[in-house]
């Protein structure tokens, strides 16, 4: 059972998302919150698999809530998905850097919304290749952060190759096909790279890959 927590200051939207999720046999909404502060308390109480968090909220906004969840080792199993009205904007980018697994635009069709919740619960990033390109195009205009290369020297050549493919938005199965290896081996390469680079999830691995210079936008 996938346990979901909704954090959004708009009651009508929360009700709509909840009604949709409650129809699914494998998904359970464990709680709702109207602001980030209340949401953080409920995340700690219920430890959901997926926290759907609005970006702009009173008291504590979605970016700060995401940052606090990502920084708490006790919440390592919580996958944050950001809800936004505007698509890929500066707030979404900041949320991904803060540790979000991905984002959803609120006018998403129900089938895609449910699929996204299941993808996030598995620990995969909600970053399609087209979204990754937009993310990187936005990112390359910004200066590199200092200290982002830590751990790169520890990556094997195959792990570097896997990271480059993750940065293109490929799944483990697609990475396996490109590299001529099994999906299990592809997942192992990705997981080891995440551990060495101290990336919380695949979305953060994408950001780190470009921040460090390991992957260039020219490869996308």
From TrEMBL:
Keywords: DNA-binding, Phosphoprotein, Transcription, Transcription regulation. CDD domains: LuxR_C_like, REC_NarL-like. Residues 148-213 form the HTH luxR-type domain. GO terms for molecular function: DNA binding. The modification 4-aspartylphosphate is found at residue 54. One of its GO terms (biological process) is regulation of DNA-templated transcription. Residues 3-121 form the Response regulatory domain. InterPro entries: CheY-like_superfamily, NreC/VraR/RcsB-like_REC, Sig_transdc_resp-reg_C-effctor, Sig_transdc_resp-reg_receiver, Tscrpt_reg_LuxR_C, WalR-like. It comes from the Bacteria. SMART domains: HTH_LUXR (SM00421), REC (SM00448). Gene3D superfamilies: 3.40.50.2300. This is Two component transcriptional regulator, LuxR family. It comes from Nonomuraea jiangxiensis.
């Amino acid at each position: 059972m996938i346990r979901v927590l909704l954090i959004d200051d708009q009651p009508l939207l929360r009700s709509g998302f909840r009604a949709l999720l409650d129809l699914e046999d494998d998904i359970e909404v464990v709680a709702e919150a109207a602001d980030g502060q209340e949401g953080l308390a409920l995340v700690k109480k219920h430890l959901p698999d997926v926290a759907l968090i609005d970006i702009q909220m009173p008291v504590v906004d979605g970016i700060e809530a995401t940052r606090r969840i990502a920084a708490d080792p006790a919440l390592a199993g919580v996958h944050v998905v950001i809800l936004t009205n505007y698509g890929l904007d500066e707030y979404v980018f900041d949320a991904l850097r803060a540790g979000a697994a991905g984002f959803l635009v609120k006018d998403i069709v129900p089938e895609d919304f449910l699929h996204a919740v299941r993808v996030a619960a598995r620990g995969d990033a909600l970053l399609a290749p087209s979204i990754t390109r937009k993310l990187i195009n936005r990112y390359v205009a910004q200066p590199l952060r200092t200290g982002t290369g830590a751990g790169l020297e520890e990556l094997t050549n195959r792990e570097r190759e896997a990271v480059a493919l993750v940065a293109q938005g490929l799944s483990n199965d697609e990475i396996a096909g490109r590299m001529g290896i099994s999906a299990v081996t592809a997942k192992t390469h990705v997981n080891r790279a995440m551990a060495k680079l101290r990336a919380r999830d695949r979305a953060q691995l994408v950001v780190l890959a470009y921040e460090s210079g390991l992957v260039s936008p020219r490869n996308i």
